[in-house]
Predict the structure.
Amino acid sequence: MRFPPAMAQKTFEKSGYMKNFPHFAGTVHCFCGDDRAHHKLMGQMERGEDWMGNQQPADLVLTPAACYAVYPIVAERGVLREDGHLVDVASYCFRHEPSLEPTRLQLFRMREYVRIGTPEQVLAFRADWMERGQDFVRTLELPFEVDVANDPFFGRAGKLLADNQRMQNLKFELLVPVNDGAGPTACLSFNYHMTYFGDTWNIRTPDGAPAQTACCAFGMERLVLALLRHHGFDLAAWPAGVRATLGLG
């Protein structure tokens, strides 16, 4: 599945993203006025005034994570098959995280593999992809470490949520040194959501239980920056094994 960088506001609201990450969300607003309103807007712009009050919500929200568009589609298909679903998904994503750090873009590409099924299927998938992800980065000849992690939850309750996520080992990240003088950058993540999305979207396994989900996510720009950081800007000089992995000849 491939998606554009925006999703329906109602779908976004149901996902619960605003409960935990309101500081990252981005909404789409558009001009919906008449000629008179347009004249007012142009005058404000010419005078250097704030003109954003003329914009109205477009019922669209910028996609925060590639997998968010998958779950409502799977839910519409009804009860899962015995073997569940495995979805290869990619999308441009947005997070309002202004930073001069080159690995923290506000608009970036995310490639994910999403597993939906029973606890046994989902946990086996994540364990497999934690090994496959490390094998892949080894072929890129990048230094890395894998560590337990947490999402940057918002507000007072955020610390409790983050601590709980770490205690249950729900999220691991593959970290690669990219920025001088800073900690390593998460280039892959391996996430176990338990029944969160199954409950949210009423996705059921054949026995009637809420489906569990997990995903393996690749940060595409971060991986590119890691390659440039460790192998340089001359692709012809990159190690032969790395070039072969990436199909560079």
Remarks:
- The chain is about 35% helix and 25% strand.
- Strands lie at 2-3, 6-8, 27-31, 55-62, 85-94, 107-117, 145-148, 171-176, 185-194, 212-219.
